Each structure stands twice: as structure tokens, then as C-alpha cells.
Amino acid sequence: MKTTIRTPAKINLTLDILGKREDGYHDLSMIMQTVDLCDVLTLEEGEGGIQVGCTDPRIPCDPSNLVYKAARVIMEKAGIRKGIRIHIEKNIPLEAGLAGGSANAAGVLKALNAMWELGMSRETLMDLGNTIGADVPFCLLGGRPLQKGRGIF
């Protein structure tokens, strides 16, 4: 089975730092928006394990990649032993604050949930996303929410 998805970047329309928290994070108030700029991911079942490839040689394709982490957490949660190959066509600029990696991780969670008919709820995907990165839950939802606190949904 093979699927191709588009994963949109996000921008911060507003970002207010309200103070520092005891846990080392900052209290924030921000409005974010998904935009039309997208990476394109192709996911295909393969031999055992997770394989990640990317058109941008600066992107690590090892277990530190958020796409790899997303595939691993959903496969562990669902007890999946199949292999998955994920190719990233990188269009979102690297390290530009546009949440490209988080968008890709969110896309992998949604795509594998659908591709393997796992039936995981939005809340479960959000919980998994929170283990990967603070922007992943937003990228699962998209749109233009007001977010407060330390930036975790």
C-alpha cells in the first residue's frame, strides 16, 4: 500500500511571551495559521523497520528525524510490525520556524492511522504528537487557533 500526502507549514501570526514558568518553559499566547507551503510525503509499506529518505541532504534520515519518531510511536502504540518507507520532498525551508518537521510528523501519524485502519481517535493522535514535539498537535489540527500556556495542546 502507498499514499502521498501534503503537510502544510505554519506561521505565528502573534506571539506574546507572558513569563517564565518554574519548569523552564515560557507561558505563551499565540495565534498560529497553516499556510499553503507544503512538504510532500510518500509513505509505502516495505520490509521490516522504518526507512526515511529526503530530497534535502541536510535533513537527517535517522531516528532523530521527527518523521521517524512519529512512525515509531504509532507503530509501537498499535503493535504494528510491518515496515514503512517514508520519502520527504522538502519544500518548507529548514530551521525557518515554519514547523516543517512537526507538520511532517503530524502527517505521518494521520497517514499511518488511515493507511493501516488503526482507528485511533484525534485525542490519541494528539497525545502521541505531544511526545514528539510541541507543534505536532497543532499540525494535526491546522487552522488558526489561539494557543496559551507553554504551547502544548
The total number of structural domains is 1
Number of helices: 4
Low-confidence spans: pLDDT under 50, at least 5 residues?
none
Tell me the Rg in angstroms: 15 Å
CATH topology: Ribosomal Protein S5, domain 2
- N-end to C-end Cα span: 32 Å
Structural class: alpha+beta
CATH class bucket: Alpha Beta
How many strand units? 5
Strand content: 35-45%
Question: Given the C-alpha coordinates, what overall shape results?
Answer: globular
H/E element string?
EEEHEHHHE
Largest pleated sheet: 5 strands, mixed
- Going by CATH, the architecture would be 2-Layer Sandwich
Task: Report the helical percentage.
Answer: 25-40%
Q: Average pLDDT value? A: 93
Q: How would you describe the overall organization of this protein?
A:
The structure is a single chain. The N and C termini lie far apart (32 Å). The protein is globular. Strands 1, 2, 3, 4 and 5 form a five-stranded mixed beta sheet that branches. The protein has helices at 66-78, 100-115, 122-132, 136-141, and strands at residues 2-20, 26-46, 50-54, 83-89, 146-149. It has a single domain (2-7, 35-143), classed as Ribosomal Protein S5, domain 2 (2-Layer Sandwich). The protein contains four helices and five strands. The chain has 153 residues and is an alpha+beta fold. The model has no long low-confidence stretch (mean pLDDT 93). Helix 1 (66-78) packs parallel to helix 2, helix 1 (66-78) crosses helix 3 and helix 2 (100-115) runs antiparallel to helix 3. Helix content is 30%, strand content 37%.
